[in-house]
Amino acid sequence: MNIFRLAGDMTHLASVLVLLLKIHTIKSCAGVSLKTQELYALVFATRYLDIFTDFISVYNTVMKLIFLGSSFSIVWYIRRHKIVRRSYDKEQDTFRHYFLVLPCLLLALLIHEKFTVKELLWTFSIYLEAVAILPQLVLLQRTRNIDNLTGQYVFLLGAYRSLYILNWIYRYFTERHFVHWITWIAGLVQTLLYADFFYYYFESWKNNVKLQLPA
Amino acid sequence: ADESDVKDEL
Lengths: 215, 10
Prior knowledge:
- The complex is a heterodimer.
- Chain A is mainly alpha-helical.
- Chain A contains eight helices and no strands.
- Helices cover 71% and strands 0% of the residues of chain A.
- Chain A is globular and about 45 Å long.
- By secondary structure, chain B is low in regular secondary structure.
- Chain B has no helix or strand.
- Chain B is elongated.
- Classes of the chains: A mainly alpha, B little secondary structure.
- At the A-B interface, α1 and α3 of A face loops of B.
- Chain A: This is ER lumen protein-retaining receptor.
- Chain A: InterPro entries: ER_ret_rcpt.
- Chain A: It is found in: Endoplasmic reticulum membrane.
């Protein structure tokens, strides 16, 4: 475990916990895309199937349980909580996420490492994670104003992905370990999606103005 | 599964 990997996991953990805390504390999910949260819950559900079969480490298992628990809790809060659900902006959060799930499913059936159910679902989760943030980015552009917690959420997710890329580079040079090219390409595409957001996030931070994404 | 196969990342 290298520092980039640990920092990446901690940043990822912070992103989901910050979001869950926001929703739990202020009983509002304004600005949060339910579609993105459902996609992340699906990503974790299809990726962490090995939690029952392969034991890697206590850390690995605990983190998987936290990610599963927090992502499903967030979906539950937005869908079911009698107060939170009122602040969900369903008119704006209209990204048809089936248009993301189906292509990822097909791509996993076409391009994978091994043709086993577990491997296909794992590959599907890698592709889906790469695009899961799209409904949230679209919602941020539609609502134009970004309340700082949602901005922080996207920022932390982007930081987690960037740190994972540093982790892969570090492992390549130190352990001669290379991640599978599917993981590498999907991870790169996912991180590039955040690059645009980062630019506007830093611009607004530098000029100390409210973050406005171009329409 | 050999080492590289084990998916040790989250």
